[in-house]
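During the reporting period, our protein records have gained a structure token line. One record among many is quoted in full directly below:
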Amino acid sequence: AVAGLKRLGLEARVRDTIAASVSLPAIAQGILAVEHLRSREDVAQLFAPLEDADTAAAARAERALGLVVEGSCEVPVGAYGTVAAGTLSLEGFIGTPDGGQLVRDRISGPVADAQKLGEALGNRLLAAGGRGILDAIARGVRA
């Protein structure tokens, strides 16, 4: 939301922001993407200059985590990836809807391993109690 307000010249209206260390965003929150048919190489070439490699790597890691934990809009799952000096850092969580239980962890490694890092962190979150939280949510009971 802050980026949108800045583009509109309304940055002065921003009163506060929430740091990722306080509240992780939803997976790929705020990342813009253009989808196209794989067969449309012309479209891929048109948008290639707009791609930010670090953002793409963070998105791959976050989405890989989401696939491992089978996240959806109904499941309290978040992830936030950042890249610095060739290293991708990914933090993620699985929680109960009321926030009473939370499993949170972090992983980092080479940017080239973005998907593997996301998958590994997703599996660690599940093993650390996230699977129980998700199973309870699926059954409709409090974890």
